[in-house]
Amino acid sequence: MNDDNKDRKNKQVGRKPKVNPSKHRYTVNLNNEENDKFRLLLEQSEVENISRFIHHAVFSKEIKIVKVDKATMDYYIRLTNFYHQFQMIGNNYNQTVKALKTNFSEKRALALLYKLEKATIELVLLSKQIVALTREFEDKYLSK
Length: 144
What we know:
This protein is mainly alpha-helical. The protein is 71% helix and 0% strand. It contains 5 helices and no strands. Helix 4 (70-103) runs antiparallel to helix 5. The protein is elongated.
């Protein structure tokens, strides 16, 4: 035999063997109610492999179950968007006052500032209602 044939014989073909392979297999029988509970837990854990889920459960590894309430997420997304709009109003407020002061007579500027003040008071009342509704929402739905 030449050296080329020896190298080919020593090379392993296929997958490398595992150091500590899992060889032992167990079966469990569940009734319909138990199976439904099992499936629900499996679905909530978002683990895609049933064997891995069972392994984590048996050996007390952490199984993460995350419940996402779509209504709560939607509420907070809308609240965040509203907050950003509120910030934009605050940014524009100073620019508006400065423009009134520089572009209008004092009498006209005061009249426009009075209207702006009324609108600002309405916004403050609206923001207080939003805060109250948010607290009510958190007390009812998020404290559970």
